[in-house]
Amino acid sequence: SESIAATLASYMHFDRDPETINQLYNSFDNISADDIKRIANQYFIDENRTTVTLSALDKVVGFDQEVDLNGAVAKIEMDKANPSAPQFAVLDNTNDSPLIDVNFLFYTGAAADPVGKKGVAALTARMLTQGGSQTRSYEDIKKGLYPLAGSFSSQLDKEMMSFTGRVHKDNATQWYQLISDQLLNPGWREDDFKRLKKELIDGIKSGLKSSNDEELGKEVLYSELYQGHVYENFNSGDLSDLAAITLEDVKAFYSAQLTQAKLHLGITGAMPDALKIQLMTDLTALPVGDEKRLSIAKAPVLKGHHATIVEKNAQSTAVSFGFPIDTIRSDKDWAALWLVRSYFGEHRSSNSYLYQQIRQARGMNYGDYSYIEYFPRGMYQTKPDSNLGRSSQIFQVWLRPLRSNNDAHFATRAALFELDNLIENGMSEKDFQATRNYLTNYAPQLVASQDQQLGYALDSEFYQTEEFVKYVRGEFAKLTLDDVNRVIKENLQTDDIHYVFISGDGKDMKQRLLSEQVSPLKYNSEKPAELLATDKVIESYKLTLPAKNVEVIAVDKVFK
Fold this sequence. Notes:
Blueprint: H1 2-15, H2 19-28, H3 33-43, H4 69-81, E1 89-94, E2 99-106, H5 120-129, H6 138-145, E3 151-156, E4 161-168, H7 172-184, H8 190-211, H9 213-225, H10 239-244, H11 247-257, E5 263-269, H12 273-283, E6 305-311, E7 317-325, H13 334-345, H14 353-360, E8 368-371, E9 393-402, H15 405-425, H16 429-446, H17 450-463, H18 468-478, H19 481-491, E10 497-503, H20 506-515, H21 529-538, E11 550-554
Parallel strand pairs: 1-5, 6-10, 6-11
Antiparallel strand pairs: 2-4, 2-5, 3-4, 7-9, 7-10, 8-9
Helix pairs in contact: 5-8, 5-11, 7-12, 13-16, 13-19, 16-18
């Protein structure tokens, strides 16, 4: 009521009639894009502009370099009149390496899947790398690439669709003829489409849902945290949507989303100049487009503790939990939070705190890790892939499968207990220095290969940061322990959390959670008295889950 009254108060004084606001809103329906352009061109021009600054300095550097609006408009009109001029961004890191890496990175992805067509981005990406062209079948392309030792593949995430290729410089021209035909002159064969659609559906059914409990738990967590958001759906799509997607849907997505405006081309290695010119020219055949990147809303607000239990035929219980965070790589506190993440749960590292407490001290599972950026395929990789840039991220804890529901309950309590301690007490100076030193030397390993250097450089463009290693080391050089402990308190919390359990007995897991059932550990060997005393605290540590916030769902219903 206050909001309504405030809005009325803003308009009623014009005509002293409450209908004024309705008339205003009705008038909006009659405004067209052309009307807005006409008014903008009439008033938002250089001649009408007055610029004012207030500063303690006698002169503000760069203030006298005003934007030339008329010139900018003229350039846009000229570009429209000359559509062959490249409208895509180019990161040219050409060097003397005999291996050439090319990355066609489009700022689009699964978040652009239309309603009812979840999976069309994934199908499009596969059709362009695992399908034929207008002139060659996919089998012919594979036969052509094999003797060249050339590759061409795709990776899809919410806001990025990356097509990457590698070849020796001596074979670059032949390789390019094959892969450019796939990307720019796709064959759209019905047999390729049916094959790849079946592979995606089988990958969800037989791969993710049947035999990859850990990845399933992490993906369900993202889906639950982003309900009603463009991040909600699994990157490969929903089964029912995939079944209904047509080849025409894929063609429409290709035309609408793979545009020059969204393309960031990365090149490294000794690419011949003539081939580079041809590549640049050929890419101008893509539609120009207007949208440079997807518009992503903030994550839905999470309130309280929630749990989703996916019941399936499983001998162990996998656990993931987390919550949305506001800090992404472009933010000033990201480096500090990245350091905290490493200390608490560096991926596949025995030095991380969670690993030492849950696996090393108690021998409960294979590993326990934490993340502040999307990291798929973690059970297969020791380092994250590049080109997974997102405008919204979550803090996540991943507990690898536990032997039973009881152990999963205890491990979840232990992780929450340690997270509470971290928030309350922060890091010590010793741990801060050790982690900073480790990451300072570890960061270059993330870009150890030429293709990863290119991928991370493109990510730096997405986030508008310096080159990754320089960025991280520069931020670390300025960090203090006080900074890090402030960032912990400002970004981490345990009031609002969503837990996901992949369990063979969902009913039992739910009963344990709701009753706060004690979850004692039994050891096969003698343990220190101090550890046993801590276990007594952890085994009844409250997760505080209301009954209305705990759901058991059959695995058949997931991503359906």
